[in-house]
Amino acid sequence: MRLATCFLLLASGCWAQGTSVVHTVHNLSAFGPGEVKVLGEKEVCKFCHVPHSATVSAPLWGRPVPQGQFRVPEVSAGRGKVPAPQPDGASRLCLSCHDGSVAQGFSPSAKTLKAFSAGGLREKGDLSGSHPVSIPLPESSVGPDEERDMGVKARAVIAADPTVRLDKDGKLQCTTCHDPHADPYYQPGVVPHFWVRPTVDEVCLACHELR
Ligand code: HEC
Ligand code: HEC
Ligand code: HEC
Ligand code: HEC
Fold first, then answer.
1. Which of 36, 62, 72, 151 is the right S-S partner for 84, CB 3.0 to 4.6 Å?
2. pLDDT tens by residue, 184-198
3. Could you tell me the residue range of the domain that residue 61 belongs to?
4. Residue 82: which H helix or E strand, with range?
């Protein structure tokens, strides 16, 4: 319902100026600030949302959602490691554009979208060098091991921190680190686009303990 309300309120400024998607490279309309845009298109939201005929019900998704399997990084399980789950939820929505393939339909300036990083998407569908997404947080804290020096705090500690954005199922998603609608903190080479907090470290350190 909030989505519908927002579409109605959009003309009167659902988001405050300066934090709105309109001023970001996610505005793919003809008047967007980035390089990738669609000439002649005036609407901003419809690249990602449609009010009717959504491919998935929430949040009224307007794009074909990729169904394929992704290569994923490994995460701890007991004393060993297992592959992270396949991306789901909001992460799969992001990957409908950021899966490393050419941006379909964004002609005439169609180009390959920068693939998701934090390690780098090596090729289409390969998330193995990236931060794990769509994972439930560990119940108890995960200590450092021989390859990794960052401990992850226990789920209850992380969930109690109001600055940490988990999805409705308590999972870490792309949207834990990036807000696709607002880009107020971007600083080239310092803070990535669509970052949820003013600094990179405060996002990481909400979950990871440097020991
Ligand atoms: C580049 C893609 C993109 C664009 C453009 C975009 N959105 Fe979204 N929007 C998303 C994603 C992804 C989600 C899901 C976020 C999540 O589940 O955490 C979302 C969720 C939402 C929600 C639900 C928020 C919530 O907290 O559940 C609303 C409302 C919304 N969008 C409104 C808009 C409006 C209005 C516009 C146009 C001004 C817009 N969006 C443009 C990607 C986009
Ligand atoms: C409709 C297609 C679309 C969807 C869906 C989408 N994006 Fe984007 N995104 C773009 C385009 C186009 C750009 C600007 C061109 C570029 O940087 O390659 C961009 C840029 C970005 C950037 C900045 C890239 C850079 O150059 O540093 C980030 C970060 C990003 N998106 C994250 C996300 C996240 C996270 C989601 C999901 C919550 C998402 N995007 C959903 C199309 C999309
Ligand atoms: C743990 C936090 C985190 C998560 C989760 C995360 N990112 Fe990022 N992302 C970053 C950081 C940090 C950067 C800055 C570049 C870097 O350090 O590699 C970045 C950069 C990007 C870029 C810019 C291109 C580049 O390689 O620099 C895109 C696009 C992007 N992320 C999309 C995504 C998508 C899509 C997802 C979900 C599949 C996602 N991110 C999940 C932290 C995250
Ligand atoms: C919402 C909590 C959360 C946030 C925020 C977060 N992480 Fe993580 N991170 C995790 C979890 C959970 C794992 C998986 C740990 C495991 O292996 O079980 C992980 C794994 C990692 C790994 C190991 C990946 C691998 O493949 O070995 C690194 C490195 C890492 N995170 C760095 C970062 C950085 C850098 C940031 C900030 C840009 C960040 N994390 C933000 C929860 C988080």
1. 72
2. 999 998 999 999 999
3. 30-130
4. strand 80-83
